[in-house]
Automatic annotation (TrEMBL), chain A:
Organism: Salmo salar (Atlantic salmon)
GO biological process, one term: Golgi to vacuole transport
Name of protein: AP complex subunit sigma
Family under the similarity heading: Belongs to the adaptor complexes small subunit family.
Localization (cell): Cytoplasmic vesicle membrane; Golgi apparatus
SUPFAM superfamilies per UniProt: SNARE-like (SSF64356)
Gene that encodes the chain: ap3s1
Pfam families, sorted: Clat_adaptor_s
GO cellular component, one term: cytoplasmic vesicle membrane
TrEMBL record, chain B:
A single GO BP: intracellular protein transport
PANTHER family given in the database record: ADAPTIN, ALPHA/GAMMA/EPSILON
Subunit structure: Adaptor protein complex 2 (AP-2) is a heterotetramer composed of two large adaptins (alpha-type subunit AP2A1 or AP2A2 and beta-type subunit AP2B1), a medium adaptin (mu-type subunit AP2M1) and a small adaptin (sigma-type subunit AP2S1).
Function: Component of the adaptor protein complex 2 (AP-2). Adaptor protein complexes function in protein transport via transport vesicles in different membrane traffic pathways. Adaptor protein complexes are vesicle coat components and appear to be involved in cargo selection and vesicle formation. AP-2 is involved in clathrin-dependent endocytosis in which cargo proteins are incorporated into vesicles surrounded by clathrin (clathrin-coated vesicles, CCVs) which are destined for fusion with the early endosome.
Region annotation Disordered: where it falls in the sequence: 624-655
Location(s) in or outside the cell: Cell membrane; Membrane, Coated pit
Organism: Hucho hucho
InterPro entries: Adaptor_Complx_Large_Subunit, AP2_complex_asu, ARM-like, ARM-type_fold, Clathrin/coatomer_adapt-like_N, Clathrin_a-adaptin_app_sub_C, Clathrin_a/b/g-adaptin_app_Ig, Clathrin_app_Ig-like_sf
Name the record gives this protein: AP-2 complex subunit alpha
Length: 162, 937
């Protein structure tokens, strides 16, 4: 099971956090900090797996991460998941984001948190993998966007938008 | 066209985010956020109805604020209202807010459930998926109650869309994990298994997670999935890289699903059906073969996906552990990976080999890679990989390579990362003991360990070396000589001084013949370290000195002078002062005979499970230590740990009355979960009985209970978070119990609450407690006093329930308080004639209770005596005509009455059996005391 999915930048600023187990808000923030601390001090080209921090369950769980330019994508998983499989899943997630945002960059994640959540929801649900086929995921996201657009044009008021 | 075009974002949101990003300081950011929160709040509170777009915008802003780590305490109601909107946009953002911000015990759940119910019955697949997602994200019990019946129907209905099926499968899985009792197996279960055959691979992907979980819990009900999984796997494995179209990932057909299928098969033993098994073996061979083929792409994703399947296939082969041919191929494949340039593969290969090492078919094959693994330990750049290498060395160690592996681990320790030193120390200590052919090698290894990594050597390790030296007389002289040499180093670790003090105090005489290590030289050497040591070590050294006086009368004057000095006899530490005073007195007034008796050599320790192993288990969690002490049988079981340890401590400091703080010291000395500090050690007291259970909440825990029948003080319970110590005293029919709750973490416990309950209504015990403070700081200890009055005799013990929050999680621990009827014994001395007269008076059948049982511990006389005294009775000497037997007498004091009690214990050393007979004026008492006591030997 996937316990949590975290995205943060090179300075530890969270860009997405999704927990599939319940923690208090404080603990969630602590977990993000702890995870950043563990992952960021590692050299490039070392292995992509390490034992989880104390807060998220210690050595029972593994952190599996990839570092892309300014962002870390970290999946915290228990022993029932294949490490390399999760690594591929991160790649699928990133490639999907890239397709959806056209050359995704950190700013896209910042300004479209809701979209990122939606895309993730098409892949992972309640900590388990729902779909691994990128085209299928993108089809779903496209369909949602169409629905959204048809509604937005009716309701958007262009004035006074703050 | 990109799925998200960048132009159509919400401008207000973008402006707000830019503002935040432009904030120069944390203060400015907080100010901006508070301004925005006030704005949104007023918008939500205002009379003007907000349109969907604005609501969405504000909710997005709240999500962004939440992500930055600020609490959001409003907006929940607005989000719930959005759920009932007909517009997708509004509904979707409502669900998003709830899945991120609402936790399972929110009061809003009922409202949310209503909205979900509507969406599930809407037959709009998009809405259904949103609702299912929400259930899976929140997953509360209330949701399970509402939907556990509905979702299986949606999952197996013929007309459900594929995307909804996928969501329904994972939703059901979530509910099953959260509340398994609410998800009832039924007609749908067999149809779920057939989802493995579904046309749509996405449905199979989602369903397999559900099926794996259900199978692991109810293997029999789902065993038809094995053949279905094998045939699905076989179709994938044999397909060409283009057959599966979108599910082909970098030229590998459906890697994720293949991994999951192989995992599912690991829930079951090898298939019994020959055809199915043949097909599976073929699949596994194909997977192994493919690993040798040239890659279809140079991309790392291609090899990743291929190897993900390969590693799962190897796990399955190891799990079956029945196909020697496949096992050897698996081992060879892993051997190749050990030298692969990809760090990830080296890591995984080391990890898989660890499990392979425990298979009898492949243990030898794994051992051939020893040089590579040692090399990995020395040269890997990544500490997580080095850690795996150390684990593997530990797993592949046996008698043939122990010396090499231990030597390598020791030399690695000199430069090892701090994070893994403590664990390495434990592993070295265990291997050294387990594979010690000659114990001088063992002693050398442990002393080296202390020299190299003294700070990381926990008490268990040096206690253990002392136990072993005391129990094996063939190594005592060597140990004394080695430790004497080690102490000559100008700077040596305090743990070395402890071991040295103890061993020279016991066996210094064995090397005293050599003028280079004459008694006075030994003493001066030890005493030169004295002033550099902490109080517990000094206390130990003082005990060593008094033992010297006994061993070597010629040192008496020198040592007495030391004891008499102000720095000892007026030491500000009570324990040290007391020892100095008492030892000085003892050495001046006792005759040599008395001195020799009091300071006799330590008796052998009862054989018990290595406490080091227990510690490693505790550190790594159960199951992590695959290697058990194979000669554990010879060593036997833990023998009433605490009592014996207590004796030992008293014997060591014999004349010194055990200080009243001894147990408290024991409590405090429990090392923190990750801590490596050798803390204020209290000699050998109690630590051995600490290998307590580590359950967090499961049921009532009464492991500790029986350990306290014959003793009043010690550690009742311990897990990773909490330690509970007990001191209790009883007089007549009254008792007072002090409970010490120690927070072992660095985080505070909140809502800490304890209740003592007594199940039987008819007042048999009168129990009064004072409540404890609801906050327990990290590292702190709080005390609770419980007053007990025994009204009449009883069987059931009061229950202690402890609840507190650690991090977010609620911890719930239930324990039986060790209040047993024998605590209210008053010992009664009587002569043989009296005893037999009373024995005869109590001759009615119901007045007697008898048990014959096998000894579960050693049958050492002193231990037995200590236990019988601990029971609270008087031990009567010269009463039973057979000196091997024990008889005891006592009166149990209750408010209602006094119950006289006679006891006879007849050990049979040859058969390792006991016969225990109890007679008392009340049948229930005889039975209860007999039951309790029978568990103690």
């Amino acid at each position: 099971m996937i316990k949590a999915i975290l995205i943060f930048n090179n300075h530890g600023k969270p860009r997405l956090s999704k927990f599939y187990e319940h923690y208090s808000e404080d603990t969630e923030q602590q977990i993000i900090r702890e995870t950043f601390h563990l992952v960021s001090k590692r050299d490039e080209n070392v292995c992509n797996f390490l034992e989880g921090g104390m807060l998220i369950g210690g050595s029972e769980n593994k952190l599996i991460y990839r570092h892309y330019a300014t962002l870390y994508f970290v999946f915290c998983v228990d022993s029932s998941e294949s490490e390399l499989g999760i690594l591929d899943l991160i790649q699928v997630f990133v490639e999907t984001l890239d397709k959806c945002f056209e050359n995704v960059c950190e700013l896209d994640l910042i300004f479209h948190v809701d979209k990122v959540h939606n895309i993730l929801a098409e892949m992972v649900m309640g900590g388990m993998v729902l779909e691994t086929n990128m085209n299928e995921i993108i089809t779903q996201v496209d369909a949602q966007n169409k629905m959204e657009k048809s509604e937005t044009f009716i309701f958007q008021s262009p004035r006074q938008d703050r | 066209m990109p799925a998200v075009s960048k132009g159509d974002g919400m401008r207000g949101l973008a402006v707000f985010i830019s503002d935040i990003r432009n904030c120069k300081s944390k203060e400015a950011e907080i100010k901006r956020i508070n301004k925005e929160l006030a704005n949104i709040r007023s918008k939500f509170k205002g009379d003007k109805a907000l349109d969907g777009y604005s609501k969405k915008k504000y909710v997005c802003k709240l999500l962004f604020i939440f992500l930055l780590g600020h609490d959001i305490d409003f907006g929940h109601m607005e989000a719930v209202n959005l759920l009932s909107s007909n517009k997708y946009t509004e509904k979707q953002i409502g669900y998003l807010f709830i899945s991120v911000l609402v936790n399972s015990n929110s009061e809003l759940i009922r409202l949310i459930n209503n909205a979900i119910k509507n969406d599930l019955s809407s037959r709009n697949p998009t809405f259904m998926c949103l609702a299912l997602h929400c259930i899976a994200n929140v997953g509360s019990r209330e949701m399970a109650e509402a939907f556990a019946g509905e979702i299986p129907r949606i999952l197996v209905a013929g007309d459900t869309m594929d995307s909804v099926k996928q969501s329904a499968a994972l939703c059901l899985l979530r509910l099953y994990k959260a509340s398994p009792d609410l998800v009832l197996m039924g007609e749908w279960t067999s149809r779920v298994v057939h989802l493995l055959n579904d046309q749509h691979m996405g449905v199979v992907t989602a369903a397999i997670s559900l099926i794996t979980c259900l199978s692991s819990k109810n293997p029999d009900e789902f065993k038809t999935c094995v053949s279905l999984a094998v045939s699905r796997l076989s179709r994938i494995v044999s397909s060409a890289s283009t057959d599966l179209q979108d599910y082909t990932y970098y030229f590998v057909p459906a890697p994720w699903l293949s991994c999951k299928l192989l995992r599912l098969l690991q829930c079951y033993p090898p298939p019994e059906d020959g055809a199915v098994k043949g097909r599976l073996v073929e699949c596994l061979e194909t997977i192994l073969n493919k690993a040798q083929e040239p890659p279809k792409s140079k991309k790392v994703q291609h090899s990743n996906a291929k190897n993900a399947i390969l590693f799962e296939a190897i796990s399955l082969i190891i799990h079956y552990d029945s196909e020697p041919n496949l096992l050897v191929r698996a081992c060879n494949q892993l051997g190749q990976f050990l030298q692969h340039r990809e760090t990830n593969l080296r890591y995984l290969a080391l990890e898989s080999m660890c499990t392979l090492a425990s298979s009898e078919f492949s243990h030898e094959a794994v051992k051939t890679h020893i040089e590579t693994v040692i090399n990995a330990l020395k040269t890997e750049r990544d500490v997580s990989v080095r850690q795996r290498a150390a684990d593997l060395l530990y797993a592949m160690c046996d008698r043939s390579n122990a010396k090499q592996i231990v030597a390598e681990m020791l030399s690695y320790l000199e430069t090892a990362d701090y994070s893994i030193r403590e664990e390495m120390v434990l592993k070295v200590a265990i291997l050294a003991e387990k594979y010690a052919v000659d114990y001088s090698w063992y002693v050398d290894t442990i002393l080296n360990l202390i020299r190299i990594a003294g700070d990381y050597v926990s008490e268990e390790v040096w206690y253990r070396v002392i136990q072993i030296v005391i129990n094996r007389d063939d190594v005592q002289g060597y140990a004394a000589k080695t430790v004497f040499e080690a102490l000559q180093a100008p700077a040596c670790h305090e743990n070395m001084v402890k071991v040295g003090g103890y061993i020279l105090g016991e066996f210094g005489n064995l090397i005293a013949g050599d003028p280079r290590s004459s008694p006075l030289v030994q003493f001066n050497l030890l005493h030169s370290k004295f002033h550099l040591c902490s109080v517990p070590t000094r206390a130990l050294l003082l005990s060593a000195y008094i033992k010297f006086i006994n061993l070597f009368p010629e040192t008496k004057a020198t040592i007495q002078e030391v004891l008499r000095s102000d720095s000892q006899i007026r030491n500000s530490d009570v324990e040290l002062q007391q020892r100095a005073v008492e030892y000085l007195k003892l050495s001046s007034i006792a005759s040599t005979d008395v001195l020799a008796t009091v300071l006799e050599e330590m008796p052998p320790f009862p054989e018990r499970e290595s406490s080091i192993l227990a510690k490693l288990k505790k550190k790594k969690g159960p199951g992590a230590v695959s290697v058990e002490l194979e000669d554990g049988k010879e060593r036997g079981e833990l023998n009433g740990g605490g009592d014996r340890g207590g004796d030992a401590a008293i014997a060591a400091s014999n004349a010194s009355t055990p200080s009243p703080s001894a147990d408290l010291l024991g409590l405090r000395s429990a090392a923190p979960v990750s801590g490596a500090t050798p803390s204020a050690g209290s000699l050998l007291v109690d630590v051995f009985s600490e290998a307590g259970p580590a359950a967090t909440s499961a049921g009532v825990n009464d492991d500790g209970f029986l350990r306290f029948v014959c003793k009043n003080n010690g550690v009742l319970f311990e897990n990773q978070l909490l330690q509970i110590g007990i001191k209790s005293e009883y007089r007549q029919n009254l008792g007072r119990m002090y409970l010490f709750y120690g927070n072992k973490t660095s985080v505070q416990f909140v809502s800490f609450n304890t209740t003592v309950s007594y199940e039987i209504k008819s007042r048999i015990l009168n129990v009064q407690t004072k409540t404890v403070e609801p906050l327990v700081e990290g590292g702190a200890q709080v005390q609770q006093v419980i007053n007990i009055e025994c009204l009449t005799d009883f069987i059931d013990a009061p229950l202690l329930n402890i609840k507190f929050r650690y991090g977010g999680a609620l911890q719930n621990i239930s324990l039986k308080l060790p209040v047993t009827i024998n605590k209210f014994f008053q010992p009664t001395e009587m002569a043989a004639a009296d005893f037999f007269q009373r024995w005869k008076q109590l001759s009615q059948p119901q007045q007697e209770a008898q048990k014959i049982f096998k000894a579960s511990h050693g049958m050492d006389t002193e231990v037995l005596k200590a236990k019988l005294l601990g029971l609270g009775t008087a031990l009567l000497e010269n009463v039973d005509p057979n000196p091997e037997n024990y008889v005891c007498a006592g009166v149990i004091q209750t408010k209602a009455q006094q119950v006289g009690c006679l006891l006879r214990l007849e050990p049979n050393a040859q058969a390792q059996m006991y016969r225990l007979t109890l007679r008392s004026s009340k049948d229930t008492v005889s039975q209860r005391v007999c039951d309790l006591l029978a568990e103690q030997f």
